[in-house]
Write a structure and sequence with these properties.
The chain contains 16 helices and no strands. The chain is mainly alpha-helical. The protein has 3 domains: 62 residues, lambda repressor-like DNA-binding domains (434 Repressor (Amino-terminal Domain)), CATH 1.10.260; 61 residues; 138 residues.
């Protein structure tokens, strides 16, 4: 995907393959990357961008998933309507598309749809081989663009516990080292890790406890302080999952969210609370 984006920017400026590859990689290697045949290291991408006069920020903005992407928009619409039947139809269509294209972007979109389907049905239809590819992609990212952050935050049910935890820790390290200069990226990064915490509370409460401890050390700016409130309620839900607190206390916390006007968060966490109560899987 990124190679194709690079190629488009190169051609717009009428820069030859040889000029773009100069002193970085061979023209043939660049051609293979531009056509999604191989991946190349992040430090080489930076040097290639210099050759076509594009800075990293411009390139990452150019490569973002368009939030008006028709496929994502349809998945979101059916997800909000709890319409798992139509999401499954989209999954089947996108899976065929990916099998023909082998395009990384199609894989990421398919993963998002499968995650939504799993959240509604508890049925994982994302193939194991695809899951391995997805984890490989995200576990080898050196620069977390908003696109990759959003993909992770919207695919948290597709990883096993250790994978989910390891990717979350990588993002938290970037948060703590102030890698995210853009406020919106910071927000999405923190939100994605909190989504991972939510999944871990079900999958592996012990790892969820470890992740929660690390999340609580992250500075949360006032404009997004409601993420701190959400994390606080998730802490009580984790305690409930571990048998350390009572249902009545959770109900009070959820009612307090409504009183604060955080009705959407209250609705989501109430749904999650009911899911925990109905879950009969043993604690990890």
């Amino acid at each position: 995907m990124y190679g194709q984006k690079f190629k488009a920017l190169r051609l717009q400026q009428h820069i030859s393959l040889e000029q773009a590859a100069n002193r970085v990689i061979s023209p043939s290697t660049l051609s293979r990357w531009e056509n999604n045949k191989i991946d190349i290291r992040f430090n080489l991408v930076i040097k290639l961008l210099d050759n076509i006069h594009i800075n990293l920020k411009e390139f990452t903005n150019y490569c973002k998933i368009n939030h008006s992407n028709p496929f994502v928009a349809k998945v979101a619409m059916y997800y909000e309507a709890n319409d798992d039947r139509h999401i499954l139809q989209l999954i089947q269509s996108k899976k065929k598309e990916y099998q023909n294209s082998h395009n990384q972007f199609d894989l990421l979109l398919l993963a998002i749809a499968c995650n939504c389907y799993y959240d509604l049905t508890d049925n994982n239809v994302f193939p194991v081989s695809y899951q391995k590819k997805l984890f490989y992609i995200l576990s080898n990212i050196e620069y977390w663009t908003e696109m990759y952050i959003n993909v992770f935050g919207n695919t948290v049910f597709l990883y096993d516990s250790k994978e989910l935890y390891s990717i979350s820790i990588r993002i938290l390290k970037n948060l703590n080292s102030n890698t995210f200069n853009d406020f919106q990226e910071y927000y999405y990064a923190l939100s994605s890790v909190i989504n991972a915490l939510t999944a871990l509370i079900i999958k592996n409460p012990k790892l969820a406890s470890q992740l929660l401890t690390k999340i609580e050390k992250v500075s949360i700016p006032k404009p997004i302080s409601y993420l701190k409130i959400r994390t606080n309620v998730l802490k009580y839900l984790l305690d409930y999952r571990l048998g350390k607190t009572y249902e009545k206390l959770i109900s009070i916390k959820l009612e307090n969210l409504k009183w604060l006007g955080l009705t959407d968060i209250a609705k989501d966490l109430t749904f999650f609370f009911n899911r925990i109560k109905n879950d009969r899987s043993p604690l990890s």
